[in-house]
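From the pipeline queue, job 12 of 40. The input is one protein chain; the requested action is below.

Action: predict structure.
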Amino acid sequence: MAWGLTGCGLAVGSGALTGPTPEPSDQAALSAQTAPAAAAAAPDPPAPAPPAVDTFRDAVNRATSAVAIGQSAQSRADWELAASRWQQAIALMEQVPTDSPNRAQAQVKAQEYRQHLAAAQRRATDNIVPAAAPEPAAVPDLPTGLAAQIPIQRRQGGTPVIGVTLGGGSGSQTFPMLFDTGATGTLITADMARAVGVTVVGETRARIADGSVVTLPVGLVNIELGGLRREQVKVAIGGSYGLLGQDIYGQYGIAIGSHMIHLHE
């Protein structure tokens, strides 16, 4: 009995299959035709994902811009622009990658920037020189060895806020200022400078809270606090908060209590 192989025309019996023997070249061609498609070149491995961009420096640049705008702001539009820069700085700080060495500092700076943003937004809403704080009561004679006794009004981020009287060409007013023992120089805001008539006499380079260095105008002002008086002190002008530095009290011993700061000879 024989079978017919469709399409080949060969007969198959109980014996061996007979037919023409393929040439070697034909066998190679046949092998090539039957090789699986997987024998093709393997695809290239996917490219590694690019590292996350550290936006810390961009955030610092936006904050520096906000400070510069705020120090020269004279209109509501100026303060709105400053507020916009603070918002950008906050957003960039929040985008600093979790594996960045700047991550922890970025979280702290973002919180600081929110305070500056709130101050700029207040100026934009009502761009008027804030009412001066009440004049402090007369300071009694101080004990021997005590140079000043300064009441603490409140604390901001752990830093004491005190009343400081500034005097210029337009008179004197008392303003709340930060008593920051880490600051070498004194900083007053542009609103404070305008309120008491401070005359700009030059400029200086100062390192601000985010670590960057900016150029600020310098003016001369009289300063009084807790019985201590300094005349014609050079102060930088800018920022959103007044800050009393060691150029005023650095020569004294400092004792900071819960409600009072004492400066000792």
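Job complete. The first strand starts at residue 3 and ends at 4.
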